[in-house]
Amino acid sequence: TNERSGCSSAFQWSMASFISTTAGGPVSPYIASLVKYDAAGVKLASVTLVGDKSGDGMAMDGAANIFVGEHDSAGNVWISKYNKFLAFVASVPFSAEVGNVTDLAWDASTLSLFVGADGGTDNRPKVIKLNFLGTVVSSVSYVNGSIRDESGITVSPAGEVYVLFSATSGANNRLLVKYDNALGSQLADTVV
Questions:
Q1: Mean pLDDT in the chain?
Q2: In the predicted model, is pLDDT for residue 17 greater than 60?
Q3: How large a percentage of the chain has pLDDT more than 70?
Q4: Which end of the chain is more exposed for a tag (fewer CB within 10 A), N or C?
Q5: Residues 6+ apart with CB under 8 A from 97
Q6: Could you give phi then psi for residue 41, rounded to 5 degrees?
Q7: Which long-range contacts does 37-42 make (Cβ < 8 Å, 24+ apart)?
Q8: Which residues are 60's β-sheet partners?
Q9: What percent of the chain has pLDDT over 90?
């Protein structure tokens, strides 16, 4: 079981629970569900996600809409949006440049969703900014020979985007990178 959670102080706490239903063997069919709980931990609602390999990051906006990264065994990758009642609202597909959604972060000041991703045709980690309509506004790939994965993303109250990248090997295998909100400028990077 792989669990990721998001919460909003004005609404019930929500958790995405991603559960393997493998009956045996090396192939892993998954059933991924998004589950909503109240503050006491009582289950209020749940929905089964579409992708058979879903549950790749989660974020919640101020209206308690939940965004979930999903993908399937055919290599399709997308972001799904569910409302606060867990009804499906829409999805945004990505091109082959995105191999996997690894993390999501909502920026309330610009009503934007930042998507951390890795893999894809160029095998580079990237950050993608979507506006509230789900349109790609900007993106940036991190180019460094050993850095291959996006491991975490968050947006500061001032709107800066912080991304944790990781390398496949080496002594300095984690790098924290700071971007402006438009993803047009890399403001800093630090080995962590």
A1: 79
A2: no
A3: 77
A4: N
A5: 120, 121, 122, 126
A6: 90, 10
A7: 37/12, 37/13, 38/12, 38/13, 39/12, 39/13
A8: 66
A9: 22
* CA 108 to chain centroid: 16
Q: Per the structure block, which two tokens stand in for 31?
A: 């059933």
Query: Which has the higher per-residue pLDDT, 71 or 110?
Result: 110
Amino acid at 39: A
pTM comes to 0.83
CB distance 58 to 50 below 8 Å: no
Residue type (1 letter), 30: Y
Contact present, 88 and 47 (Cβ < 8 Å): yes
Q: Which of the four pLDDT bands, split at 50, 70 and 90, describes residue 3?
A: very low
* CA dist list (Å): 152 to 37, 149, 163: 24, 9, 6
Mean pLDDT, rounded, for 5-23: 49
Backbone angles phi, psi at 130, to 5 degrees: -110, 140
Strand order from edge to edge, sheet including 66-71: 58-60, 66-71, 77-82, 88-93
Tokens, residue 180: 């402006």
- According to DSSP, the residues that pair with 14 across neighbouring strands are 6, 36
Q: How far apart are CA 124 and CA 42, in angstroms?
A: 41
The dihedral through the CA atoms of 69, 71, 14, 83 has a sign that is positive
Give the pair of three-digit tokens for residue 135.
């349109």
**48 bridge partner residues:** 33
